[in-house]
Amino acid sequence: MGLGARAAPFTYVAHALAVAAAAMVLVWCIHFRGGLAFEATNKNLIFNVHPVLMLIGYLILGSEAIMVYKVLPTWKHDSTKLIHLILHAIALVLGVIGIYCAFKFHNESGIANLYSLHSWLGIGTICLYGIQWIFGFVTFFFPRASPNVRKGALPWHILFGLFVYILALATAQLGFLEKLTFLQSSGLDKYGAEAFLVNFTALAVVLFGASVVVAAVSPARFEEPHDYAPIPGH
Ligand code: HEM
Ligand code: HEM
Prior knowledge:
This protein is an all-alpha fold. It contains six helices and no strands. It has one domain (8-217): Four Helix Bundle (Hemerythrin (Met), subunit A) (Up-down Bundle).
């Protein structure tokens, strides 16, 4: 699929938005919500690890993994493939730890588990991500399928990979919405600084995700057709 645009500018935009979104989620959870902890008497601090790890660890690292072929187009394919699979593995592990923190917060606060659409899509997305990783590893890395099978499998790997990635973006949107709605129902100012911060973080994630997807479906560089010649006089 070609959009007639090169991937590079979209990767720059994605990086800038990733830095902005990461900074905003940290300011939210540390400055407004009191900080991060794995063990604490204030259980909200355990919850705060969840959005931070899901955004920075899972979504942003996963996006860097997807974009690596476009960010480092001149590197050897074997090297970018290795970076791709390692970054995806780290993203998966941090995502699992982030989800564990949400469960830990619920269990230690006596709150039920898995009652929301967010949590259902969250479990679905992390499982599909794990399956995608295993299939990718076995097909393209070790033991590696035959060249013909690899060729046939690649479009499916890209399609399914982008599907899982978009599902993860949507899950994060529901998470931001859900948490902000909880806070607003317990008295948080609907037009206050914190509400704007959370909504702008979620908006940055939408634009960030869009840039990553466009970068993934765009070519790293154009191969001009050999018979191309500019129209004389133009
Ligand atoms: C793709 C990223 C994300 C995934 C896969 C994910 C997954 C999950 C899962 C599986 C749970 C259920 C925990 C339980 O039932 O004990 C959960 C809970 C929760 N998550 Fe996320 N989450 C993600 C991002 C976020 C973000 C960015 C926020 C923003 C604050 C958030 C807010 C919440 C809230 C408020 C809960 C508790 C309420 C509930 O269970 O729905 N999540 N998340
Ligand atoms: C959850 C994990 C994974 C996801 C979401 C994922 C997603 C993607 C996406 C979206 C692309 C297209 C990138 C582009 O064309 O710019 C891609 C390409 C690729 N992925 Fe994965 N991937 C995952 C795991 C793996 C693993 C474990 C391997 C094993 C080596 C792998 C091997 C490849 C290869 C060889 C390409 C083709 C690169 C090229 O076009 O030259 N992927 N992946």
